[in-house]
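FYI - complex with D-malate, inputs then prediction.
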Amino acid sequence: MGKSLLLFLAAALVSPGFGGALAQTAYPSKPITVIVPFAAGGPTDVVTRIVGEHMSRTLGRQLVVENVGGAGGTTGMTRAAQAEPDGYTIAVGNMGTQSAAPALYANLKYDPAKSFTQIGIVNFTPQAIVSKKGLPAGDLKAFIAYVKANQATTSQGHAGVGSISHVSGTLFNHLFGLKPNLVVYRGTGPALNDLVGGHIDYMVDQSLNVIPQIQGGSIKAYAIAATARLESLPDVPTTGEAGVDFIFSAWNGMVGPKGLPPEIVATLVAALAKAHDDQTIKARFVELGSTGPAGADRGPAGLQKLVESEVARITPVLKAAGATAN
Ligand code: MLT
């Protein structure tokens, strides 16, 4: 190699343009912050940590979870929407923050379908209807009758207006004319702790969050709001089996701020797909009553389609149930 070629290469490597190109191809070159818009220990946090740990191994850089709770998850998602689109701040929102919130917050600072770069669906999980261990009801119908007869003294926990536990709980209560006292948390992780402690009476929450406590007998489960029983809870009936017409599937989705470069999106999409294909993660999802997206629903297009169809589906349902942010 001639001296002039060597000098040219040395100069190119230190020039800003060339350095920029190298930095792009080297993504990620530092840890990636993943905003979880709810408290630690809840379903969004748990599923993010499961796939995040696998993605960290694939990407060679850590995905660091930052819990930014408040306002039913909309505080954290607003921060994610307003972040620099450089691939170092992404987020995992859910069916609440990404499809119910627009119907409930007049001044929401993001549009779930337009303010983000969609990366992909993380998981689906049916809601479970659960109560504190000591609540005197043997099945779902008896539980509904109990709440109706005692609503002035009965409390329901949820993760803030627009969260999945709030939306699904609101629809469940509306269906049966229940008006419990609502107790608001920054996520259903802390709400579940209070349910186990007997400080609140019931929740409609993601199976993912409550399966270990149901299995351990520290809370009671009346039904899974799905058409089939969960493999990990073979004794808990579906809502249909329990005589009630209430189906509710929750989901989580990974997003970045709008304008994320396509090559960064492709890197994250591939890492998420690799996590979904991992047998250990598949088995963990089954244990937690969750499923990953089917092949055709993976990636940005699958999540975009889901967000748009869920906003269209849930907005009129919430209006009909009279749900508001107050
Ligand atoms: C919800 O109700 O939206 C979630 O359960 C919140 C959470 O992940 O804690």
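The domain at 126-224 is CATH 3.40.190.10 (D-Maltodextrin-Binding Protein; domain 2). The chain has two domains: 30-124+251-320, 126-224.
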